[in-house]
Amino acid sequence: MQIGFNLPVSGPMATPAVMASTAQLGEALGFDYLTMTDHIALPDVSAPGYPYSTTGEFYSPEPGHRMEQLTAAAWVAAQTSKIRLVLAVMVVPHRPAVLAAKMLSTIDVLSGGRLTVGIGAGWLKVEIDAVATTSFAERGAVTDEYMDAMRTIWTQEKPVFHGKYVNIDGLLTDPKPVQKPHPPIWVGGESGPSMRRAARIGDAWYPIGSNNAHLLDTLPRLTAGIARLRDMTKAAGRDPNAIGVVYRVKRHGQPAPLATDGNRKLFTGSVANTIEDIAALKAIGVTALDFDFEGREVEKSTTDMKKFRDEVLSRI
Hints:
alpha/beta
């Protein structure tokens, strides 16, 4: 099982010096990958609306101060040498497909083949209305077509693709990604359409357990979700075991009330509980986990990462 951590690309820790030192620290501590989130324009974040917390508030402080994801990924690649770079997740409708395909293949080449493309359709209407050239209502269809177009661009010498949103006919789009046939695709989202997208094109399904509309916050709930994914993957004509499962942990090691199904929420409680949950998730088919150490204080974040290495990574 791979273990990753969230690199601060937003908030008070999102400075060149801190981002570089944190990425290098994670690499030195033995984390397998780092993750970077994607927002371009946010509304007043003091108003609740974030779907992945119980209060509707963003977990990270000052989320409106944020580096652009793909630019940051290219820069972080130059600050590191071996750790994988995971987009967690790229909001696909934000960027035209041909441009995004070029940017992603460039990052993969510049990083020596260390990019993982996490994707999602997006959930914030005002942001998509401001940034995308397509409508919020069409974001699912746009995401599906853009990804089909990008995979064509990455794998065909002279790509030909004609759709509703993307048309390209034999234009040269080199360089191709270092990774073949293309960088791994981790499909985020917990809804039915997101899971079907993962089943159709994903190398991994990449849910967050705390989505209030589609909770996967306990072992029984996540086990049931993975079973649904396997059924969808089979229905899509693929080997149900061909797709991995990556679980994104927003908060860990803190006391919390029982979940609404009566079970302990995953990754709440003690260090022993965290180690127990890692083993349990590995047993049900989870292939990677990433944890968030982001906050306001660099020293505390650094201490927490080192403590996690000593108390958890060294024991699994």
